[in-house]
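Dear support,

I submitted the protein below through the web form. The confirmation email said the job was done, but the results page showed an empty box. After a refresh the structure appeared. I'm attaching both so you can tell me whether what I see now is the final result or a partial one.
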Amino acid sequence: MRSFEIYHARDTVYFSGVLRADAIDDAMAMVDQIVNEARYPTLTVDFSRTEKAFGNFLTVLLNRLVFLRHNRIDVRITDDEFPLKSQLQRLNFLALLDPEKYNARAVRTDRALPIMRFCDADEQGRVVDVMTQALLMQIPGLERTQVRSAQWAISEITDNVLNHARSVTGGFAYAQINHGLKNIEFVVADAGIGIPRSLGELDAGVALQKAITEGVTRNKETNQGNGLYGTWRLATLSRGVFALHSQRGMLFVRPDGTVKSLDKARRYPGTFVIFQIDYSDPNLISEALTFRGRLHEPAFDYIEKEFETADDNLFRVRLKEYVESVGSRESGKKISNLINNVLSMAGGSKIAIDFTDIVMVSSSFADECFGRLVTKVGPAEFFSRVTFENTDAALRAIIDRSIMQRLRHVAIAGDA
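What the results page shows now:
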């Protein structure tokens, strides 16, 4: 039984129930009936009956709505207050759809990131950086190969939008970390020419099969053709979701890992891909990113770019660039994950925590960030490898007191 219902009346499309990726086809059908068949110059989207909407559905829908606005269709969201409105604001759905009416929220590295739009290489680079940063701050105990693979996959898929899609509205990207399932879901959507046309293949199903085949690309002089192939491998070996829809072609992975493709699916103007990567097994990476019999190791990864210094024995974490607040345990936990991950990836090098432009931190932040981290990695490891830069006496006193209180608490618990 379906968990959603989508219908339209005149120029309004109504969404009710729970909207997941399986609702995308029905949503596109209703939008097309209003815009292409009835030819209304306006489109009103009504979420007042929606119980819940997942980021994958919202990203793909937003991509379509922004394209319609670009083509002079007056797309509107009902002005009335509705339960989903706060989520749409948090994901920047409303701000990206109608920036003149809604203000964008600051990007937060939460479990579910906001939807991000990219139209050039700089914006695409920021998307990749923000998503990679979120992994380091949300998932403890990562290995560097895992970070590299996730960074590589999202970089390749978003780069495809800029190099092949010819989308006049750029691309839209979204990521969500599912801690319970130990996977990361990524969504990338564009309103471009589509994979069949890009590859010059009339059969859409065949085009999508080619797109996930090793080494297939429109231009072998500039591309290796492994972006979708490697991403598909990462997803399927993770036993996660991989769904690709472009024009009338649709390709998805069955639960047993086999691939199903269609060449007469409902037309989606452009392309979207939804994929999941398992982060619980680092060995998946070497198997998935093996091209022409050789393991691919992405060069100049996020760790090198953001934390390595001219001194080979020193990594630096500039706290101000990663922290939203220094007054809460939530922020302290994110920074603790980040520092711990960098420690494990630094190969024995020292880590300098730079407090430039941070005058004071709360005791709860210091305890969550540094107190717990000392007990996790061990005092000897922590004090031999971690240093603090640009702190005054008052700030250092708060940090030191939090560490000592945490160590004392652990010692008492151990004695008991």
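Response: this is the final, complete result; the empty box was a page-load delay. The chain has 15 helices and 16 strands.
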